[in-house]
């Protein structure tokens, strides 16, 4: 099936999310849409899938104009979509989820799932999915849940599959398996629109790459294009994708976590008996698929979790049981994973956000009075140092792009002497050029002798920044390994295998390949 978009424009008020985009997806082709978060990729696909109506432009299927008033009409035309956040009911079986919206009712008004089960088994066998139609979805690994989403589309005879950031929640092994599945679908004549910001994956699987920046198509590329070329297209200037950093020179161990346990409201241990150290002048990266206790770990350190036991010490001082304000006063810098909710006050100015952790201290305050001139001077210095793109220091922080918001948070946290720096998803939603800058700044903090803890679900980022890597799985520590540990070993650890076992299995597999 041939799919074509002509002059697609989507406006939300004065915001132009898509600006006269042209795109052609040929039958049996993997066509990648590459661009930074916020570039307009997902908006474009939501238009194609009938979730949004285009402000201007035409969609053609097999050279005939079509209009979709909703996903049902898109599916009826042979277009299926696997969203970044799965559209599954956790307590339903695979068959029940696949049947949703396409139910067959038998005698007595009872749902007839026999035909659905048969189709699931057929598709599962054809593509090697290994999916049990009667399994409860919430009991399945994330990678298998994603296969259920693909099966949902294929059961409805999708000829074009839209995969929106499909590897965001997968382990490296699951990512490789998905890329293999995409190859099988392509060989079967299916077309795939692969939406991603990950250069390595796009290069590995694409026939054609279309790059979108700020809502516009800025170029197309062959998969043989270098990552540097693709990155430059994404951000509009040349960037370095390799972080240059000297080997760590760890000093005294000043941050210690012992037997840390965090209990959820239902009593489940979301962090389960963690123990680790970080020395001055080193970066410990916490790796793992999102949702394996990383958020609760950082929140426990910062005093944001209630049901916590164990010990967290910094320079010999116990942090457990202290308030967030006390932890910050002890010299802990913290960049939360959701900057817009936890890192900034969107309605406050850039200048005000830059002093949120010191607004009542000299030199920004004298007694009960704040000192506007000093606050403004500080803002101008930080805006220049961190290259924050803003109309003025008085602009509301919520009006800035994601990357510039992150720079404001980083600038604030690095504006005082630190005894510990923690950053959770430090470059999520940040363009390639800003990533380069923020990574250098994190390494500079390490080189200044600060213990640094980075939490990231991006394995490339972990490998780029880490001096040592700790892997979490279901709240437990699978091991702490050197920064040069292979992706294969890290992937096995992220799937729940302890470090020594993962290393042995990876070594055995490599031996078998020789």
TrEMBL record:
Domain called ABC transporter: residue spans: 3-239, 255-499
GO CC annotations, alphabetized: plasma membrane
SMART domains, per database record: AAA (SM00382)
Membrane topology: Peripheral membrane protein
Domain of life: Bacteria
Localization: Cell membrane
GO molecular function: ATP binding; ATP hydrolysis activity
Record has Membrane as a keyword: yes
Pfam families: ABC_tran
Keywords: ATP-binding, Cell membrane, Membrane, Nucleotide-binding, Repeat, Translocase, Transport
Name recorded for this polypeptide: ABC transporter ATP-binding protein
Species for this entry: Arthrobacter crusticola
